[in-house]
Structure formats: structure tokens, C-alpha cells
Amino acid sequence: MKLLIKAPAKINLSLDVLHKRSDGFHEVEMIMTTIDLADRVELTFLEEDAIRINSQNRFVPDDQRNLAFQAAKLLKERFQVKAGVHISIEKNIPVAAGLAGGSSDAAATLRGLNKLWKLNLTLDELAELGSEIGSDVSFCVYGGTALAKGRGEKITQLPPPPTCWVVLAKPFIGVSTADVYRRLELSGISHPNLPAMVEAIKEGSFNGVCDNVGNVLEEVTLKLYPEVAQIKDQMQRFGADAVLMSGSGPTVFALVHHDSRMHRLYNGLRGFCDQVFAVRMLGERHTLD
Ligand SMILES: C[C@](O)(CO)[C@H](O)COP(=O)(O)OP(=O)(O)OC[C@H]1O[C@@H](n2ccc(N)nc2=O)[C@H](O)[C@@H]1O
Ligand SMILES: Nc1ncnc2c1ncn2[C@@H]1O[C@H](COP(=O)(O)OP(=O)(O)OP(=O)(O)O)[C@@H](O)[C@H]1O
């Protein structure tokens, strides 16, 4: 038996850090939403007791370091599964980009193996297991749009944001999330207005969403990599309605209402950025079928 599962990227419309915790993680408040830029995870049932993985992407590990492998191992050990799986990942999401590509592959593997290995777990149970793999995995198990608290694993669903284009550009650098959090100076940061963003999403106000995007990690990554700030400037010049870095970066995204402006931005950015995408947000959260 074979399953093909879509593993979409996320963007952070709002990312705030409240304080550093005693376990070394940071207490965050974020609004995340999935976008129509996705990896494809193919799971093939194996009779033998083994987890095999391949991704054919030189930046992605083909072994136990892969987050999808870790998801399979976690389920296998926790529920004493005797069968195995071959995981094949078609990588379309840029790696180490702030788009949760690895986390989404892990979440897709959890959802898929739940079916392939007939575990009958709920989405809530899968999300809780996912938090053991990484802070973004719980959100990726549900997808859609959500408020995430704690270290990112406490999820409250939100309605989908108003329809618009998301134009993403990633410069040719990878960013270490751990490094960005480590360099964050909490004193004197200006916090995004998260309640205003939640309100704007609930009211379906595109202007409200644009007025309230914010990410406290931007300052750290922009200082380390000036090319990220340059992309932000370019996007603003090409007429984006809002511009923000996603997660710990370096991907920057623009929200754009009009088709013509989306084309202008997309074509303009392709001139000096190696990876550019124009996609929609995905309204629907994942379901278990
Ligand atoms: C930047 C974001 O992607 C925004 O959605 C997430 O906060 C990070 O999520 P992630 O990549 O799944 O993070 P993890 O793999 O759990 O952690 C990577 C590293 O980031 C730091 N980290 C992560 C999450 C968090 N709330 N506080 C942290 O300080 C820790 O040093 C951790 O060792
Ligand atoms: N399935 C996977 N896809 C991509 N990277 C993976 C995967 N599994 C493990 N990794 C490792 O994780 C690192 C971070 O990759 P990923 O693309 O998930 O980062 P990210 O988008 O910045 O994540 P986040 O937004 O959650 O911080 C990579 O350098 C890679 O070595």
C-alpha cells in the first residue's frame, strides 16, 4: 500500500517572543498559516521492521536526522509497530528557510502513518506527539491558520485570513533557528500587536492583517544578513501591501491583493533572487480520512 501526502509550508503572520524559559526554549505567541507551496511525502508499507528514507535533495539528510524519519521512529517505538515504511520526499519547500519544511514533512508522516499502520490516533494526539519532534510540528499536523503559544505547540485554530497573494523570496543562504533565538536581545524589542491581528483575521480585513504583521526575530536575521533587508526593500518598492520575514528567516514574504501587482513583484524579484514563489494561503485545516 502507498500513500501520497501533501506537506505544505507555513508562514508566520505574527511572531512574538515573551521570555526565555528555564528549558532553554523561548515562550512565543505566533500566528501561522499554511500556504500552497508543498513537499510531497510518499509512504510505502513495508512488511519488514525497517524505516527507509530518501529525498534526493543534497541539503536534506537521508537518515535518522530527517524529521520525517524521526516521526516514523516515534510512532513505531511508542506503539510497538512491527511493520515498516519507506518514506520518499519530493522537496519543493526551500530548506532552512523559515518555512517549516522539515516540520511539515514530519507532520505529514505522522498523519500518513496513522492511516498506513492503522493506529487510529486523533489529530490532537498526533499534534502532541509532533511536539516531541520540533516546536513547529504540532501546528503542521493541523495546518490551516492558528495561534500558537508555549514553545509553539499550544494551538488554537483561527479562521482563514482574507484571500490574497503571498509572494515569497529566499536568498541563497540558510539560517539556523537556534542561532537566531540565541542572538535575540529581549530588552527593548517592539512587540507586534497580536490581538489586533487576530481581530483582523476574524473580521476578514485585509488592511487590518497588513497593518499588524510583525516578527521580533527579523531584527536579528536582518543584522546578520543584509541581503534579507534588501529583499524587503525591493518588495516594498514593487508595491507589496505588507512585507515580513517568515520564522527565523531568511525567506521574506509579501502580501498582495491585486493580480497585476503580484505579477510585477514576482517578475521583479526573479531578477536577483534564486527562489521566488507566488502562492495562495490554504484555508482548510487537515482532516484524518
Ligand atoms: C522560528 C519558528 O519556526 C517560528 O514558527 C519556530 O519558533 C521554530 O520552530 P522549530 O524550527 O520547529 O524549532 P525546534 O526544532 O523545536 O528548535 C530549534 C531551536 O530553536 C530554539 N527555539 C525554538 C522554539 C522556541 N519556542 N524557542 C527556542 O528557543 C531552540 O534553541 C531550539 O533548539
Ligand atoms: N525533511 C526535512 N526537510 C528539510 N530539512 C530537514 C528535514 N529533516 C531534517 N532536516 C534538517 O533540518 C534543517 C532545517 O530545515 P527546515 O527546512 O525544516 O528549516 P526551517 O524551514 O527553517 O524550519 P522552521 O521554520 O521550522 O524553523 C535542515 O538544515 C536539515 O538539515
Automatic annotation (TrEMBL):
User: Binding positions for ATP?
Assistant: 94-104
Q: Which Pfam families match?
A: GHMP_kinases_C (PF08544), GHMP_kinases_N (PF00288)
Q: Which domain of life is it from?
A: Bacteria
Quote the NCBIfam families the UniProt record gives.
ispE (TIGR00154), PRK14608.1 (NF011202)
Q: Where is the active site?
A: 10, 136
Family per similarity comment: Belongs to the GHMP kinase family. IspE subfamily.
For molecular function, the Gene Ontology terms on record are: 4-(cytidine 5'-diphospho)-2-C-methyl-D-erythritol kinase activity
| Swiss-Prot/TrEMBL keywords | ATP-binding, Isoprene biosynthesis, Kinase, Nucleotide-binding, Transferase
| Record-listed E.C. numbers | 2.7.1.148
- Per its record, how is this protein called by name? 4-diphosphocytidyl-2-C-methyl-D-erythritol kinase
**Which source organism does the UniProt entry give?**
Robertmurraya beringensis
Q: Look up the record and name the pathway of this protein.
A: Isoprenoid biosynthesis; isopentenyl diphosphate biosynthesis via DXP pathway; isopentenyl diphosphate from 1-deoxy-D-xylulose 5-phosphate: step 3/6
Q: Which reaction does it catalyse?
A: 4-CDP-2-C-methyl-D-erythritol + ATP = 4-CDP-2-C-methyl-D-erythritol 2-phosphate + ADP + H(+)
Q: What does this protein do?
A: Catalyzes the phosphorylation of the position 2 hydroxy group of 4-diphosphocytidyl-2C-methyl-D-erythritol.
Query: Which positions fall inside the GHMP kinase N-terminal domain?
Result: 66-144
GHMP kinase C-terminal domain ranges (all copies): 197-273
Q: Top enzyme class of this protein? A: transferase
